[in-house]
Amino acid sequence: MTTWEYATVPLLTHATKAILDQWGADGWELVQVIPGPTGSENLVAYMKRPRA
Fold first, then answer.
1. Cβ–Cβ under 8 Å, residues 50 and 16
2. Could you state, in order of their start, the residue ranges of all structural domains in the chain?
3. Would you say the pTM of this structure is higher than 0.70?
4. Which helix (H) or strand (E) holds 19?
């Protein structure tokens, strides 16, 4: 059975693609993006990847 590790990543609106590309290159898969605790201007990405 696959076990997963998870991460939450704050996204900067001017660098969203670069941030997600970097995490993806490190093996992380994007699960969801939601507004951060301070409102819709700040986004938080939820990521997962299989544990090694």
1. no
2. 4-50
3. yes
4. helix 16-25
Give the integer Cα–Cα distance in Å for 41 and 32.
Answer: 16
Question: What's the rounded Cα separation, in Å, for the pair 50 and 43?
Answer: 24
pLDDT in tens, 8-49: 999 988 999 999 999 999 999 999 999 988 876 789 999 999
Q: How many CA atoms lie within 13 A of 10 on its CB side?
A: 7
- CA–CA separation, 35 and 25 (whole Å): 24
The count of residues in the chain is 52
* pLDDT reported for residue 36: 87
